[in-house]
């Protein structure tokens, strides 16, 4: 639903410590889309956030006609529809698109499992932590990153060649996020291709303009 009938600039709501917000900010920059970033916290700025999106989910995008969108994948899907073909971040062929969606899915699953571990370790008192659940989540996190490590080539190109696309952003952002918030996590060690890939991505201007911390 539009929040206003008047034309307004696009606004991206949410903090860049969220990998979901960050992937949208970086992707919008790569697409060449102007936007205002409003770093509202879903916790500390709950009321201000709720005034724009009552569901309080980050990222939230308020489009130029005032439509309020949420969920990083749905936001990026919307943006792909009106950006010039040469600025799009999803490859055009069916086979490449399927591979891209698979890689993005693995990266998003890794983000989700990382968040679950962080919540388990930081929010739940130690006596209430459930080891079988932690082991399950840790196994899923390891599986996601093992699959991604196997997909990355060594060298100086990206997942689909010369251009940084949505899958590259998702993978690099996920890896940076996981290793930042879980620095001692054993299942994140020994993944040299992912580490190098994220390091190269983080050196790009679009990534540097959207710092995680
Ligand atoms: N699948 C969503 C996940 C977004 C998400 O979980 N965002 C977190 C911040 S990192 C959030 O909004 N948390 C507040 C809540 O769920 O109450 C996406 O891709 O945007």
Quick structural summary:
With 213 residues, this protein is mostly helical. The protein has helices at 19-31, 46-52, 72-82, 94-122, 131-151, 166-181, 192-202, 205-208, and strands spanning 11-13, 36-38, 60-62, 68-70.
Distance between the termini: 32 Å
Q: What is the helix fraction of residues, given as a range?
A: 40-55%
The helix-strand sequence is EHEHEEHHHHHH
Q: What is the mean pLDDT? A: 95
Largest sheet, in brief, is: 4 strands, mixed
Report strand order across the widest sheet.
2-1-3-4
Strand portion = 5-15%
Could you say which structural class the secondary elements and strand pairing correspond to?
A: mainly alpha
Q: Indicate the CATH topology of the largest domain.
A: Glutathione S-transferase Yfyf (Class Pi), Chain A, domain 2
CATH architecture of the largest domain: Up-down Bundle
pLDDT under 50 segments (min length 5)? Answer: 1-7
Put simply, the count of helices is 8
Q: What is the name of the CATH class of the largest domain?
A: Mainly Alpha
Radius of gyration computed on alpha carbons: 18 Å
* Form type: globular
Total E-strand runs:
4
Tell me what you see in this structure.
- It contains eight helices and four strands.
- The chain is mostly helical.
- The protein folds into two domains: 11-87, Glutaredoxin (3-Layer(aba) Sandwich), CATH 3.40.30; 94-208, Up-down Bundle (Glutathione S-transferase Yfyf (Class Pi), Chain A, domain 2), CATH 1.20.1050.10.
- Strand 1, helix 1 and strand 2 form a beta-alpha-beta unit.
């Amino acid at each position: 639903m539009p929040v206003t009938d008047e034309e307004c600039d696009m606004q991206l709501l949410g903090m860049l410590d969220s990998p979901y917000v960050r992937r949208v900010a970086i992707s919008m920059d790569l697409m060449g889309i102007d936007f205002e970033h409003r770093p509202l916290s879903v916790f500390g700025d709950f009321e201000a956030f709720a005034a724009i999106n009552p569901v309080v989910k980050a990222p939230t995008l308020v489009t130029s006609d005032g439509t309020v969108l949420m969920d990083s994948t749905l936001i990026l899907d919307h943006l792909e529809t009106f950006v010039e073909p040469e600025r799009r971040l999803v490859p055009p062929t069916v086979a490449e698109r399927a591979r891209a969606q698979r890689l993005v899915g693995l990266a998003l699953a890794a983000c989700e499992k990382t968040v679950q571990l962080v919540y388990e370790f930081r929010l739940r008192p130690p006596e209430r932590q459930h080891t079988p659940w932690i082991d399950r989540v840790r196994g899923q996190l390891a599986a996601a990153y093992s699959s991604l490590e196997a997909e990355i080539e060594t060298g100086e190109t990206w997942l689909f060649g010369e251009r940084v696309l949505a899958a590259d952003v998702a993978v690099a952002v996920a890896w940076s996020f996981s290793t930042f918030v879980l620095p001692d996590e054993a299942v994140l060690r020994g993944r040299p291709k992912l580490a190098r890939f994220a390091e190269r991505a983080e050196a790009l201007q679009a990534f540097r303009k959207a710092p995680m911390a």
